[in-house]
Amino acid sequence: MNFITSKCNNLKGRVRLKGDKSISHRAALILPLCHGDAVVKNFLFAEDTINSLNAMRMLGADIKIVNDEVHFKARGLQSLKPPVKSIYLGNSGTSIRLISGILSSIDGYFAVYGDESLCRRPMKRIIDPLNIMGADIKSILNNDRAPLLIKGGKLKGIEYSLEVPSAQVKSAIILAGLNADRETKIKEKVRSRDHTERMLKYLGADLEIKKDEIRLKGGQQLQARDLFVPSDFSSAAFIIAAAALTENSEVTIEDVLLNPTRTGFLEAFKNMGGQFEILNLREVNNELVGSIKVYRSKLKGITIEGEIIPRLIDEIPLISILAAFAEGETIIKDAQELKYKESNRIESIAYNLKEMGIEYEIRDDGLKILGNTYILKDSYNFYSFKDHRIAMAFSLVGFVLDNVRVYDCDNVKTSFPDFVEVMEGINGKIKIV
Ligand SMILES: O=C(O)C1=C[C@@H](OP(=O)(O)O)[C@@H](O)[C@H](O)C1
Ligand SMILES: C=C(OP(=O)(O)O)C(=O)O
Fold first, then answer.
1. Which of the residues are catalytic?
2. Closest ligand 2 atom to 389 CA
């Protein structure tokens, strides 16, 4: 599947998006560990999050989908048992890393694997701490990548300092720690998304966050509770960028997740000169939610570095597009983690910027992009590198420069299956061929 996008303006309307991917994963993985019944509304039914649901079903979790809601009858971690088959997690880093934390605390053997891209991503970051807790996790090909063979059982609580700023690693340790024999303490130098901590607190967990340290009691029982999943901020970011880049646009995105550990993109966008308003800000199930009204914006280049990086890591492909149409230079630093996503995002961005004729420099921890240096051509041909965020980000270039084709966009279904319909709904000119 390829995208063709064309020049457009006047993006208008009100948009309501499906639930946040990170929170949907956590609902799928954490609710079966609780006791009681719960209904999840606005769950994101995308390939990645469906992989999390199916994995928990393979362990015996009672999960039913009724009229777009997910119904859980949860009987606790002890009710989950090793499946006969290996657990396939597709393209989803969040699924494989978080579930490895859960499996580590269940008696038995589990094999987990994913698609070609997932089997290239680093797993030592979870293997090491989970093995210190008492699991026995082996990389089957001995390359610190999936497939992983996990022997789970009794775990001990540990004190652990995160080497990489990663919510997936932090969450794997927290989920393992829930059933450990004593307290677990995790230190993170740079704050990453905290949805696991927030959801666990909402479900009654004994968990404390003090400055850079998370403390969690071992052997906890959680109570299932209904959840509403706010709309995905990372998906909303594509609409924000599309409206900002096109003449005469004004779009409102309703009830979006606005947790500050996720909204670094809005801060960067504002510093670039982005025009938007936040409306109806409130808390829902221990997460911040509000609507974003965004306008056509004249942008300037900025430097993005340090603690903000984990809070906008998935939006860096999109920030590169904004930078390409901004006045002056944008520098992205401290973003080495981009190399370990669905593709090496530093290289994927650079390859496509080159196709635009943009002047840029690749660095070990990011990129330097010189705005408005693109060359006017009859058409532009981008490659997604089978990475959903690269596909969606570069498709927006066509809204400004016309005649864009992005090849191999099937992976958009992993996070934003209705991307094309949503864009069309606000007058975006996008076709699938
Ligand atoms: O915990 C999560 O839901 C996620 C954490 C981030 O990954 P890392 O933890 O590897 O930084 C992010 O890139 C990913 O899209 C989702
Ligand atoms: C990196 C991403 O997801 P994951 O790590 O779950 O594959 C993403 O959605 O951009």
1. 314
2. 10
